[in-house]
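Study this protein:
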Amino acid sequence: MAWSFRLIFAASLLLTLLNLSSGSKIGVCYGRNGDDLPTPEKAAQLVKQHDIKYIRIYDSNIQVLKAFAKSGVELMIGVPNSDLLAFSQFQSNVDTWLNNSVLPYYPSTKITYITVGAELTEAPKNTSSLVVKAMKNVLTALKKAGLHKKIKVSSTHSLGVLSRSFPPSAGAFSSHYAYFLKPMLEFLAENQSPFMVDIYPYYAYQDSPTNVSLDYALFQSSSEVIDPNTGLLYTNMFDAQIDALYFALMALNFRTIKVMVTETGWPSKGSPKEKAATPDNAQIFNTNLIHHVINDTGTPAKPREELDVYIFSLFNENRKPGLESERNWGLFYPGGTSVYNLDFTGKSVTEMSSGGNGTNSTRTSWCIASSNATEADLKNALNWACGPGNVDCTPIQPSQPCYEPNNLVSHASYAFNSYYQQNGATDVACDFGGAGLKVTKDPSYDKCIYMTAGGKKTSAAGNMSAAPSTAIPIQRHTTLVPWIAVGLFSSLLL
């Protein structure tokens, strides 16, 4: 009996710890507002071909749900704004929808989120007064089916729900929307659902290029914007917008609600007035965004906080109204070819074939530990790099090529440089809270070869080529927690 209990407890603990290591996720929005788009079956094949694991659609189209059956792709489906009246009036309407449009395809098609309404405050017909009732009815229908713990219910918003977003610590929700936001936030907190928001640094730059630099919008700023109230430093617009939401939530005492970005991205083409809408800038933004997310970087106010992000959009959509940029947010053309080579491999932006407007120098550089850093700062930074930073620190272990000299500065230098090269060789990737220092002299010695972007990497077995993968690693898994879990599992069994 004791052995059986110990085995069950150990297995439960292992699964719990593995679940904690899931990491932040990158998904893609699959809009279908075009007359030249591939069939849902071909779209699903493209998604699987590129190893994309998370897709958002804006309705519950049966053909799309069928196309993604048994694909392993997790779907976020939506209830359009036009259905909110019916969904809010009668529970039977929601029950019928769930029974006819969702349950027949679940769980073969993995559905994990239902968004009820989208950017209601921006819609021509404001139906925001109906959304919370509709959300509650959807949750009730899920409870009847026993799926309320497997499928989360929320609604998406634009950043326009904030009355203030700068500085981030002054973030506040607009009092004009209090009538539906407060009960919605109570619903989200009670049901552990995320606050979903669509964030576009592109528009922040496009609307105010004199106040927002292009580099700041593209995750490439070499300078920092300080929040005078908190002293937090921001090197990109995306983080500042996310933190403004977190501070707005905290101001209303909703501290447990997590933020999820259900749309973000950059257009590859625009009208003559939209000079920043280029393939190069789109490539740079999305590449840096992916690096930022899959490494669990977090934000200044929420360091290393997991953040799930969906990039808009899978395809260019030729029927979308508005400026030219509206029809050119896609990662792929309708024929299935890439609009640009999106970097999911950790290569430097400047090494990509299209060049771009990056601020990184083409001259090779390395990142080492600063001699001015304190021992405590170096220890903390080293532990983070070898853990959540996802650096392979095997070479600095005993008997390995970079173990000697056995001191903190040497070991930290190797780990700092590995993280720096894996994350685009940007200024931000060599910060480490001020403990990192960029140099142009190769710090390699003897058999300890320091990695360069696209170059060589030292491993436990010696030197090996750091060849980029062609697949898209959409989700990063922290390496330390699974090993800790296995150790605890083994100990408990013994």
